[in-house]
């Protein structure tokens, strides 16, 4: 009687084929490619429009291939200024928006992680009451409290300032909740070992909690940066000067009801430049972002 053969682990290709047919794999890839084309084509078309002259854009149909005005259009937008927003350059808008997005993302993370640290690792009266008060603010977005918040900014003289753009948006109940839930998974033995080692609250936070939280921080940073980058309503209210506008507000101002009054080639350039920083953040921090969503790293 022949001896039974030992089971050999399936190769990568064999694993793909388990429970799947070749036709099913091709169909799945075709659907994926079609989805990418549907999502990417408007972006490509915007890029194509950004490389043509205004006359070409106003005279349909727009070519499907890039034009010969790439350098001229991008240089004019970045450094020459756009007429409909008071001659402010797109470079200034990008700087404004980057400062606001970074300020909101970093501010939210710093305040949230410190709040969660205090709630989880310190014992003080009404600790859970304060946590639930923070949690309840989820039901009070900026749109609900916008009038009193705007009044406070006016009284403090923070209109047309970076502080006025950032400060009302840096508190985040969601980030506090996420950090709290993560801190609750920290083993008590680790806290006790740090105490026996003579680590005070600040050293425990700096040397133990922050390294353990870095993937969570990275994931939240990506989400909050994009949140800050795409803000519209609050920057619209607290900026009166064109040179303090964010790029989203400037895009709205650049578009006129009459096509002939709109510098469409510069609008398309600005649209392309507006999506570059968020894409770079996602691409550069993709590994950390995914790990922060799926890995607790304890």
TrEMBL record:
The record's section on NCBIfam families has: PRK10973.1
Instruction: Outline the extent of the ABC transmembrane type-1 domain.
Output: 94-285
Please report the record's description of how this protein sits within the membrane: Multi-pass membrane protein
Q: Which CDD domains match?
A: TM_PBP2
Protein family according to the UniProt entry:
Belongs to the binding-protein-dependent transport system permease family.
- Tell me what this protein is called: sn-glycerol-3-phosphate transport system permease protein UgpE
User: Where does this chain mainly localize?
Assistant: membrane
Quaternary structure note: The complex is composed of two ATP-binding proteins (UgpC), two transmembrane proteins (UgpA and UgpE) and a solute-binding protein (UgpB).
Does the keyword ATP-binding feature in the UniProt annotation? no
Its annotated function is as follows: Part of the ABC transporter complex UgpBAEC involved in sn-glycerol-3-phosphate (G3P) import. Probably responsible for the translocation of the substrate across the membrane.
Query: What residues form the membrane-spanning segments?
Result: 21-45, 99-122, 129-147, 159-179, 216-234, 264-285
Q: Where located?
A: Cell inner membrane; Cell membrane
Q: Which UniProt keywords apply?
A: Cell inner membrane, Cell membrane, Membrane, Transmembrane, Transmembrane helix, Transport
Q: Which residues form a coiled coil?
A: none
- Gene name tied to this protein: ugpE
